[in-house]
Design a protein that fits this description.
This protein has about 200 residues and is of the alpha/beta class. Helix content is about 30%, strand content about 30%. It contains 6 helices and 7 strands; from the N terminus they run H-H-E-H-E-H-E-E-H-E-H-E-E. The chain has a 7-stranded mixed beta sheet with strand order 3-2-1-4-5-7-6, sandwiched between helices.
Length: about 200
């Protein structure tokens, strides 16, 4: 099953099984279906998805890897440190008939060594583990020529310089609202909307 409209993709992604017990230490905040669909649609429109191999670092329930496959990626690898997340990602892919083109592995991002065409990721924002997002970005830029990454809004200039030191340029920035649900004990409100940015990097070195 391959989709060609962002709305179709969003509807499918809304139906995926979510993590039952998100872990605060891993900053497991689920990617909203509309934001995931927007990110994947952007990737497709930029020519970085169809027929490409894709990796999703910190994949959670597999939403970005699965979305990429539904939108035309040839293969996808999802990695996550949480074994429960990987099992849920596998179930989600299996229900959609995608396991033949998808692999989901329990792995620390620092141990990921495969090369792919494109990385699409929603890394930890670094609110609990300082610089967690830059760790993920560093690995992504070493494993793919093109990287799409979600980050807290306002950090794009810092991340542009970070990427430039690693032979990559920031080519596109798009701001989106991220509705963060109350899933951890330290969350006080039922839902809070935080601004995030989809950043596209291209390795030139």
């Amino acid at each position: 099953m391959e989709l060609r409209t962002k709305r179709e993709l969003e509807i499918i992604l809304q139906q995926l099984e979510e993590l039952r017990d998100p872990k605060p230490s891993l900053e497991q905040c689920p990617t909203p279906a509309n934001l995931a669909a927007a990110l994947i649609h952007m990737c497709y429109m930029m020519g970085d998805l169809e027929g490409k191999s894709v990796a999703d670092l910190g994949c959670g329930n597999g939403i970005l890897a699965i979305g990429a496959l539904l939108y035309g990626a040839s293969s996808a690898i999802g990695i996550d440190l949480d074994p429960e997340a990987i099992e849920i990602a596998k179930r989600n892919a299996d229900r959609l008939g995608l396991l033949g083109r998808a692999r989901f592995l329990v792995m620390d991002v620092r141990d990921f060594s495969e090369e792919v065409d494109t990385v699409i990721q929603n890394p930890p924002f670094g609110s609990r583990r300082r610089h967690a997002d830059t760790l993920f970005l560093d690995v992504a830029l070493r494993r793919a020529k093109v990287v799409y990454s979600l980050h807290s809004a306002g950090n794009s200039e810092f991340l542009r310089k970070f990427a430039l030191k690693r032979g990559a340029i920031l080519t596109h920035v798009e701001r989106w609202p991220f509705p963060l649900r109350r899933i951890f004990p330290h969350h006080k409100r039922r839902i809070v909307e935080i601004p995030v940015e989809i950043l596209r990097f291209e390795v030139i070195g």
